[in-house]
Amino acid sequence: MRHDLEHLDPPFPGLGEEVEFRLETHAREGLFLYQRDGEVHAKPMSPFPGGLRVRVRVGESPFRYLFRLPEGFFGSHGLEKTLPRYDRFFHLLAGPPLPPSWALGAVFYQIFPDRFRQGRPGLAPKDGAWTLGGRPIRRKAWHEPPGPEGALEFYGGDLFGVVEALPYLKALGVEVLYLTPIFQSPSSHRYDTEDYLRVDPHLGGEEALRALYEALEAGGMRLVLDGVFNHVGATHPWFRRALEEPESPERGMFTFYPDGSYASFLGVKSMPKLDYASPLTQERFVYAPKAPIRHWMRLAHGWRLDVAHSIGEGGTDRENPRWLRALALAAKEAREDALVFGELSYDTIPTLRAHTLDGAMHYAGFAHPVMAWLSGRDHEGRPVDLDAEGLWGVLFDHYAALPLGLRQSMYTLLSSHDIPRALWRLKGDKDRLRLAYALLFAFPGSPAIYYGDEVGLSQPNPYGEWRGDPYCRAPFPWDESLWDKGLLAFIQRLVALKKGLLPLRQGSLLPLKAPKGVLAFRRRHGKEEVWAFFAPEGARLRLPRGEDLLTGEVLEGEVERSFLLFRPAPVS
Predict the structure, then answer these.
(1) How far apart are CA 572 and CA 570, in angstroms?
(2) CB–CB of 547/553 below 8 Å?
(3) pLDDT score, position 570
(4) Cα–Cα distance, 159 to 202 (Å, whole number)
(5) Distance of CA 494 to CAs 216, 454, 498, Å?
(6) Which secondary-structure segment (H or E) carries 543?
(7) b/e map of 246-267 (b: 16 or more CB within 10 Å)?
(8) What topology is assigned to 507-568 in CATH?
(9) What is the pLDDT of residues 249-264, one digit of tens each?
(10) Pairing relationship of beta strands 446-450 and 411-412 according to DSSP bridges
């Protein structure tokens, strides 16, 4: 049995629209069960070649449903003998916000602007130009490794440099750039914003952003910006006024406690947390034409919302779904095809099922379990004992629980600016890195390359000092003699496969029988399939006739591989 996004017509319905639901099954009769107004309703399904179908009006979102067949109840987690919990129904979202079609399976490339490429050296801040936290900033040479001072260290990358790098990114096959924050800030990471309406002059200002946007548009690529709307920087004029003038309107934009302290991001006082219970916060960040989430949609195609899981009221995440939904709708009112996904570092399912965002960074449902399986340690360095069977359970559990329309728009990753680089976690083992990236591109979702991973960029700290930030933010090595060009060509091939094969781009995720210790699954769209096998220690596989998609080699019978993307030949 099979039911996924391709079995819905239309796949992204408006609220109140009638949808045809199809189920691939050998059964010739069945009921469509769906929740409405607190009740579970039933409607008979009609047979068609290959399965059953029914048309139902989608009257609420999320719309929960499953199929009752002679052998049991078929929901998101498979066949069950009794009516399952609602969280094991299929979930469909209807009406805005919904992901734009361009984002489904799109290939992303994440850039940390200060560390990617320098286009105009004169824009770089000078050594000691200002202080941050009472210490002078430091200008570093491009070849120097990042040190523990992190936010104080500036390398001088800018947006003109990103424009210069577009031919390289286009050749790699990238479709969407995601930039970490670009707005005026005293730190090199720029998550402590002091002016949301000004592109940092050290990055080239609005002139450079416009040049980048126009170059991307001309090349058929897109741009996603980092929206830091959970907190501001302590140097922001609104917070300075709130701190210094207790009677000011801005005071209510933040949460102050009786002892004079205030809510901040993870207790970091340089990042005071916004209070969305404040009408002034709502106006300035959601509803006003100059709200940054609206204002910058003229020069970008979407947003990644920083610490989206924390945005809320009263110094907490209270009313979090309401404000995530409001932010996403604001962006889409300014740009109809905008993409808005969130940094949901933990369980994404409750937030995404609440019809809030177009997707999320796939940490819990992909990056963390995959890298724990391959490295034997979690993202914080603790030992983990996870086998292939256990990994499949985690991956499929998260996939199945996602609303159908978001399964292909999840920002799916291995490395980022917040966690250790994949190559470093694998102790420099590039064979395992290739396996990890093959798995990333074989899995459903929008695969994201963290800048430099594709040429073998790692980080300088010893393995015993388990840190991502700031060591995972090294400058991109533009000296090609430092590149692993074989790795680059390999990832380029993966990108081409993702873009060229519908099963990899938008296909269903299905289990695949394989020897013990092998992670295996099928991606299927219509009658096309791609089989994926992953075994870090190597495995003997028995295959029908077909093609090794990475090499073009025809295979049949027994082969030994540590990983394989395989297209079986059509059965005549």
Answers:
(1) 6
(2) yes
(3) 87
(4) 9
(5) 22, 11, 6
(6) strand 528-548
(7) eeeebbebbbbeeeeebbbbee
(8) Immunoglobulin-like (2.60.40)
(9) 999 999 999 999 999 9
(10) parallel
Burial class from Cβ neighbours inside 10 Å (0-12, 13-18, 19+) for residue 237 reads exposed
Contact predicate 516/392, CB 8 Å: no
Alpha-carbon span 88 to 353, nearest angstrom: 12
Q: Where are the domains of the chain?
A: 5-92, 106-225+334-504, 507-568
> Is residue 30's pLDDT more than 80?
yes
Query: In angstroms, what CA-CA distances link 161 with 114, 190, 242, 298, 466?
Result: 10, 18, 37, 21, 31
* pLDDT tens per residue across span 277-322: 999 999 999 999 999 999 999 999 999 999 999 999 999 999 999 9
pTM (two decimals): 0.97
Residue 385 phi/psi, 5-degree rounding, is: -110, 95
Give yes or no on whether 106-225+334-504 and 507-568 have one common fold: no
Q: Write down the residue that tokens 């995601």 correspond to.
A: 178
What is the CATH number that goes with domain 106-225+334-504?
3.20.20.80
Residue 5, CB-side half-sphere exposure with 13 Å CA sphere: 30
Whole-number Å distance between alpha carbons of 255 and 569: 62
∠ Cα 137 139 141 (to 5°): 155
Annotated active-site positions, please?
Answer: 306, 343
Q: Where are the alpha helices (DSSP H) in 357-506?
A: 368-375, 388-401, 422-425, 430-442, 485-500, 502-506
Radius of gyration, alpha carbons of the chain: 24
CA-closest candidate to residue 133, choices 202, 189, 201: 189
What is the C-alpha separation between 308 and 323, in angstroms, rounded?
Answer: 10
Site of tokens 């004079």 = 260
- Which residue stretches of 223-319 are H helix? 237-244, 279-282, 292-295
Digit-coded pLDDT (tens) for 483-531: 999 999 999 999 999 999 999 999 999 999 999 999 999 999 999 999 9
Class of domain 5-92: mainly beta
For the beta carbon of residue 84, count every other beta carbon within 10 angstroms: 18
- Contacts with 206 (C-beta within 8 Å, 6 or more apart), sequence order: 198, 199, 299
